[in-house]
Amino acid sequence: MKSQTLFDWDAEQQGIILGAFFYGYVITQIPGGYFSEKYGGKWFFGLGTFITAALTILTPIAAKSSYGLLITVRVLEGFGEVRKMISCDLSFHEKNAAVLEK
Question: What long-range pairs does 60-64 form, CB within 8 A, spacing at least 24?
Fold first, then answer.
């Protein structure tokens, strides 16, 4: 008895879907750090959290709509997540650096 699947994606397509998050994450490493340092970490932390949460809620809808839309949503989730990580890292070092390191 063959089980029915909701999505008919082969192994390559599944890999692209899973990797799409990291494409967005990698692309925004340097710009995310620059803007987080320039405008402050709290804005990027809040914005990144909101964007990632909203897109995560939309992920099932995107998956049911089309393969391309799901990849787009996953890349955008990566954009939001990198800002969150960089802003937390910068804020931590700003508050905890030794006086001579500032």
Answer: 63/7
